[in-house]
Structures are given as structure tokens and as C-alpha cells.
Amino acid sequence: MIYLASPYSAPAGMWQRSVEADRHRQAVHAAIHIMSTTGEAVFSPIAHSHYLHVWSDGKIGGDWQQWAEFDRAVIGACSRFIVLKIEGWGASRGISAEMDIASALRIPIEYQEWPARG
What we know:
- The chain is of the alpha/beta class.
- The protein has a single domain (2-113), classed as Hypothetical protein PA1492 (Rossmann fold, 3-Layer(aba) Sandwich).
- The protein is built from 4 helices and 4 strands.
- It has helices spanning 16-38, 45-54, 64-76, 93-104, and strands at 2-5, 42-43, 80-85, 109-113.
- Helix 1 (16-38) links the parallel strand 1 and strand 2 (42-43).
- The two termini are 23 Å apart.
């Protein structure tokens, strides 16, 4: 299985939900692209967890700390780790922490430009 890391959270404010929704959309399309071109299962914490956050009325957060233990367990079950290079990826605390976990587990880290080229 491939773990697809991508940024999600945005600073609180008027555009927060819009940024999160756009990042969710990009993660979903990237997961579809990777699954359809590699034939491998993909777990994207953003694609798979976005609606739990949005529809929980604040009961479930969207930040890294809310999901850290869950994501750590999933990363441990993966053989590949791909970082989706969309706006915000380089500044994401969550992606940085996920990469540290993957590195500690000796899971290869790859980068995916988005939209995909080629």
C-alpha cells in the first residue's frame, strides 16, 4: 500500500474551509491517478478523513495532532510513501512528521508533482 501525504490545514479564517476543500479535491484526484497507473492501493489521510472532520461539527479536528496516532499506524502498514507536491506541502508540519515516521521505518519517500506530468 502507498501512503499519500499532502497538506490539509490552513490558518483559521475566512478561507480556511475553501483551502481545505481544495486540498482534499487534489488529494482525491492524485490518489485516483496513482491507483489507476500503479495498480496499488493508496491511503490518503486527506482523501479518507476530510469528511469526518468537516461533518463532525468540531468534534474531530483536521490538524496533525488529531490524526497522528492513526496515521503512524497506517504508515507502518505501507511499503511506499509519496508526498504530493501541492501548495503548502513544504510548510506542512503534518507532512514533516509523517516523513520522519516513514524515514524511521525505512520506507522510501517519493515526491509526486501535481497535476501529474506525463
